[in-house]
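Q: Here's a chain of 102 amino acids. Please give me its 3D structure as tokens.
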Amino acid sequence: MTILRDAHELTVTEAAQRGVAKLVAEAEQGSDLVVTRRHRPVAAVVGMDRLAAIEEAAADLHDLALVLARSVTDSGERTSLDDVLAAFGHTRDSIAGLPDDE
């Protein structure tokens, strides 16, 4: 399974014959290349724009999973900031009086 669109597959030998410059040029033009060894994908060559899109999609999926997990486990109970501060022995005034770290 691959997340690359219409990826062109080539063997390690074919990739070596094309050379790095040709592979990079194809990736810059928007081609997704999957390099295989013994018919198994071992590497991908993609342009930076495509890589950024893949990373953004992965981050979005991570955020979505977090939202879904939180919505399933949310009891509806909320804790105020003042209650949290009190649990650690502070108040808003005591926090405001602390020196700034510089």
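Q: Can you summarize the key feature?
A: The chain has five helices and three strands.
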